């Protein structure tokens, strides 16, 4: 009996040897850290005998020290450490060394040399790779901004590798470095300021794809889609590097391996007493548009295969558990049989029990055989998967090497083409000059009268063709200067109207010959600005030549010059009545050497518009086009009125005075002019698309109309546009109409806007609730469109009368009421703020708007809606009313009074005072003194 029990005990399954691997990570948050842990778990899926112990220090070095101590106490056979602070963990590594536990350092090193192995990327090499790739993108020249991570050895090494590698490209320079954050997007305010300060920036290098996302957002907001962006990490998954490159939000991302799989493989070699490398430096590859799709597909395939492996392993564990359970049952039956024999049961009962036991054993053996066969099949499937993964890895490495070779070849070929292009353009100028000189002499010299008509015609043809060829060469050279950053702006104070008028007059003879009307329409007699005539000459000459080329006889070209509604910028528009631009050509007309459909008589080189675009950007402006096929085109050049000091010519005159108290500084804009009914803006907020479209269609013939599909979007549009009236539904998802009106009434920017409720809620108490919320009119559905239209007109007319009333009150500036309405409270606050800065001659509308919590345009629209006047007239009215008080006091001279109310010029103060009150300040004081006496 004892022998049988001993045999049964001996048949119990002996567990396989178990190893314990401890992993102490500095922080588990972030996609890159998650990819590191996922790589470890993926590799450990093939080793169920390993017990994996993970600890997260949450960026706390003291906590990580304690966790390493706990892992050693828990019996870890190998310790993998991703340090938070290398200096702080040296003592912990030394303790593991004293206990005989090998330590593998992952991603960062410590100050201790007693570690078994190091696994991590080459940060210095990653920075150098980014620099070389940037040089390849920018053709070895241009401005670069670097966004580093928070100070660490990783950020320091990537920065060193990047800057040292850039030294090989003397025409590339880092215009600025910003310290970002590994776990957040880049410092957007700092990057915005740097991009505005250095418009020549062509590339941003971010130390992580997360910071590259922030850089992309900044470039989008500034309209700098031309700036290339390079990040580091290159991870797969939503919002990571592969997706950013595939969607065009990043030009490239450097794959920086998290190293999880490699760390586990080194640990297994140590545990199995196999040879291993002490230094395991992981490689870096460039991911761009040439290989991103392949890598995404491979990542998806690997993820799918990993899921299959995990599913199969789960099934294997289930089968093993079943097998163990059945084996336990078998052992129990054997023990039961031994006990039955020991008790000396009857032979018949023993026989019967034996038969039953034998039958059960047969069933169990059959089940065991099936389990063993399933295990064999699973092992064979796992072996096939491993072979497939190995083959795919080899294919990926081969493709990566091939792509790198092709990229290097393309870079070399591109550089050779550019050198040939530039040298050839320069070489053409000498023979062209030698052709033009003799031809010009023959046409205009002493013997020109001896030329036959046919000879004169042929020489004229040669001269025109040579001039055209020289113009093309000059454009090529200008293109090359812009590309290498050699063309600089040298701006001087100038009058944009006079400058454009000179160019238009130069084209008038050619227009008359072609029977084209050329009209010049300046909106102001003069518009002072900082201009570089050499740069803008080429821009407007190209635009005028282009317009003249495509405008048929009997057509018209109109050139207009005006100040924009936004401060500090001017616009020049060249409008023609030519053939227009095809929709498929519009996105490409500013590309170099692009030639769309052209008439046989007007074929161009494809350089003029691209050169004009580059020169306008160089002047910190913008060139846009609006065209309709068969009706003509309008090219708009928008220029800043002022330019940074570094773009001023060294011998330029003193800067122009653009202060708020000068007449030219605050021109009348569209925002200053009260709208007529057709210009009134009505905002329709309705979540039902059909009703929204119907209401907008009924109002659009009479007013300007904007629409929003829900309360949240409508509230945002109302704050941005400051409409003249709002038509709003009550029952809407998210933000209801009642909440929208409550927020509108509580905000100074929109407290004055009339609101019409248009709703199916027709109960009397609901109508009362709507009016109490702040609605001016409550219309129930179905409604009469004519009644809605007349309600809108009546509310706008009432608003105009109220505006006139407030405007008359403004002339006397009465004492505020004890309980003012929102409009009066706004006027009181605005008046108080102007009076607080009354002595400032440099007070700007932007500053005033910022203090009151408005944007510049919102303040213009608010003052216009409440008072029917412009903000500049309001400021001047407050200044002049204060001047009247000071002149009556007789304590200050007229000049001193002018300075006290913010006028830098005595003559400008006198003219403004006389225009308002019909008499000069001195005459006003004299009459007041005579009246008092």
Number of helices: 28
> Tally of extended strands?
24
Query: Radius of gyration over alpha carbons?
Result: 40 Å
Q: How many domains in all? A: 7
Q: So, the CATH homologous superfamily of the largest domain?
A: Histidine kinase-like ATPase, C-terminal domain
Overall pLDDT, averaged?
80
- Structural class comes to alpha/beta
Which geometry do the CA atoms define? Answer: extended
Q: What is the name of the CATH topology of the largest domain?
A: Heat Shock Protein 90
Strand residues, percent: 5-15%
Residues in helices, as a percent range: 40-55%
CATH class of the largest domain: Alpha Beta
Main beta sheet strand tally, sense and closure: 6 strands, parallel
Instruction: Please state how the strands of the largest beta sheet are arranged side by side.
Output: 2-1-3-4-5-11
Low-confidence stretches: 7-15, 653-676
Through-space gap between termini:
140 Å
CATH architecture term of the largest domain: 2-Layer Sandwich
Pfam family, one: HisKA
Domain Response regulatory: 681-796
InterPro entries: CheY-like_superfamily, HATPase_C_sf, HATPase_dom, His_kinase_dom, HisK_dim/P_dom, HisK_dim/P_sf, Homeodomain-like_sf, HTH_AraC
Domain Histidine kinase: 423-643
Task: Write a structural description.
The chain is 53% helix and 15% strand. The chain is built from 28 helices and 24 strands. The protein has a 6-stranded parallel β-sheet, with helices on both faces. The protein has a 6-stranded mixed β-sheet with strand order 7-6-8-9-10-12, sandwiched between helices. Strand 9, helix 9 (241-246) and strand 10 (252-256) form a beta-alpha-beta unit. Mean pLDDT is 80; it is low at 7-15 and 653-676.
